[in-house]
Amino acid sequence: MEPLSYILALDYGGTKHTAALIVPGQNTWLAHGRVVSPPGADAAYDQTTMVRLAHELLSQNPGRLAAIGVSFGGPVDATRGVVRLSHHVPGWEECPLAARLYAEFGAPVAIENDANAAALGEWTYGAGRWCASMLYVTVSTGIGGGWVLDGHIWNGADGMAGELGHNVMRPGGAMCVCGKAGCLEAEASGWGIAAKARAWLTDERWPAADRDGLLAQAGGRAEAITAQLVAAAAAAGNTLARAVLDDAAEVLGAGLGAAINLMNPERVVLGGGVTKSGDRWWQIVRETARRHALPQTRVEIVPATLGDDAPVWGAMALAQVLL
Amino acid sequence: MEPLSYILALDYGGTKHTAALIVPGQNTWLAHGRVVSPPGADAAYDQTTMVRLAHELLSQNPGRLAAIGVSFGGPVDATRGVVRLSHHVPGWEECPLAARLYAEFGAPVAIENDANAAALGEWTYGAGRWCASMLYVTVSTGIGGGWVLDGHIWNGADGMAGELGHNVMRPGGAMCVCGKAGCLEAEASGWGIAAKARAWLTDERWPAADRDGLLAQAGGRAEAITAQLVAAAAAAGNTLARAVLDDAAEVLGAGLGAAINLMNPERVVLGGGVTKSGDRWWQIVRETARRHALPQTRVEIVPATLGDDAPVWGAMALAQVLL
């Protein structure tokens, strides 16, 4: 009798690593493991950890490893199978990850950055199924995205396609980490929302009760304000929090409308923590995108369905192509 | 001896129509004809005119018509071969142009809107050759664009891809024909430049001599100011004209930078009358795009080389695929 064949899907996140074992054609994880990175972890730690995790899964499930799919939390050169760098973890510069995994496990390896992998995951198994073209946008601490066009990840000439987070939506607006002002990310991401709420705490346009209330919910420490806290306060009727969240939703909607005009995708899928900010946020995002997009374009903006696992599912889809 | 085979390339413009006859594989026009539309021309006039023009070319050059490529100045449904409408000429609504041309000439027909056709033309025969991905933008009276990705026109889900002209670059900015404010087209197109120059004529930030001078060059009639006139005045040192043109170039650069972040094309090709505004305009467009695009993306912005003939060349490329 032939041994079972497996796909190994690996997600190298900034703070946690996931490995999953899948039987091709069966769209469930047979087994998986997760490891949270300790503070100060470097590329060597990440690689050793992931290899050990994978060997554990494989030794507990005897069979033949047919292919490996990898999602990496940072820019990669997908063609060469090389990690360019990690913005969070030192030591990843120009790491030939695909070659190392091949040497370790003897199976072919496909690799993508996490935004593209998540896009492919949602397209293959989640909210983007049956679409000819899809823009996936993660609205989390930062804002990034990925394209699936005609069933393939669109990488762009330098592997950078989908990076709408640093498009200037509001010239002269909030300062961004990239050095520009008014970027989509600075105005609408998790950190952007928190920063705006902090800045507006001293703005007398809003009732003192709401300003004091928001600060109190952060334990009196402005720096402890998060997007999640702003969303909760907005839902509870805090006018300052609501204005911050509405503003963020509007800028995001404008950004998506612009992307729709440019590429006219069949569907836009939104993932990431900020998308859990409630119905009002979704409504404003959709209405603003519709207003900014040309009337002849469809505007179909839906929530991602795979959550934090989207990159793992995407790694699985990447590996399927190698079979 | 076999008769010569021909491709017929047709460009239905808003104000003029071009037909060209080409021998497949020979990248020159064997014969061509042009007709300028009289004021008040409608779809029936345009169609009769073009059919007559084509029959003339064919009767003067005996042979076999192998395929027809069509560029149309307005939205089309390329899949069904149907013109949706013309924004300039009445009577084109839902016109089955491909089917009519097939019935008339007995050869297979491929059809595209003029922005996509021009993009394909530049990609196949002009400034976009040897590119895996290209954004073509025409900066003329209006601003429109088209994508060629992996050698194919990217139409989008509703045939609207490339319509970056109505992306809001400057919230609260100049009013656009589309009803929004601060669109790329309102800030950077030919009519946008002319409108801005008119609006700034009464702005005392610029020396009275330059304001009066610009008005004098338009024969004392503000409504006679054109983008071409503004560019000429800017080149001659008029500070108001220069500021208008610089501002337009900057907004365009920001729009291109945003498109580059989103899709990371290998090259951006700019056509249209406004691109003849001089070196300073090009320099500002390129520098601003570079500043807005992420550092990891290439920013290669070059002039189109086919001029007004780009849609005809694109129609020719469309037809080649049918052979």
CATH architecture of the largest domain in chain A: 2-Layer Sandwich
Order of helices and strands of chain A: EEEHEEEHEHEEEHHHHHEHEH
Rough shape of chain A? globular
Unreliable stretches of chain A: none
- In this structure, how is the largest beta sheet of chain A organized? 5 strands, mixed
Helix content of chain A: 25-40%
CATH superfamily of the largest domain in chain A: ATPase, nucleotide binding domain
How many separate domains make up the residues of chain A? 2
Helix count from the secondary structure assignment of chain A? 10
| Spatial gap, N to C terminus of chain A | 20 Å
What is the total tally of β strands of chain A? 12
Over the alpha carbons, how many angstroms does the gyration radius of chain A reach? 21 Å
How is the quaternary structure best described?
Answer: homodimer
- Under the CATH scheme, which class of the largest domain in chain A? Alpha Beta
Output the CATH topology of the largest domain in chain A.
Answer: Nucleotidyltransferase, domain 5
Strand content of chain A: 15-25%
Spatial arrangement of strands, main beta sheet of chain A: 3-2-1-4-7
Mean pLDDT score of chain A: 95
Estimated structural class of chain A: alpha/beta
Description:
Two copies of one chain form a homodimer. Chain A is built from ten helices and twelve strands. Chain A is of the alpha/beta class and 323 residues long. Chain A folds into two domains: 5-126 and 307-320, 2-Layer Sandwich (Nucleotidyltransferase, domain 5), CATH 3.30.420.40; 143-303, ATPase, nucleotide binding domain (Nucleotidyltransferase, domain 5, 2-Layer Sandwich). In chain A, helix 5 packs antiparallel against helix 8 (239-263), helix 7 (227-235) packs across helix 8 (239-263) and helix 8 (239-263) runs parallel beside helix 9 (279-292). Chain A starts with a strand and ends with a helix. The model of chain A has no long low-confidence stretch (mean pLDDT 95). Chain A binds chain B through residues 75, 132-133, 147, 149, 154-164, 166-171, 178, 180, 254, 257-259, 261-266, 291-292, 294, 296-298, and chain B through 75, 132-133, 147, 149, 154-164, 166-171, 178, 180, 254, 257-259, 261-266, 291-292, 294, 296-298.
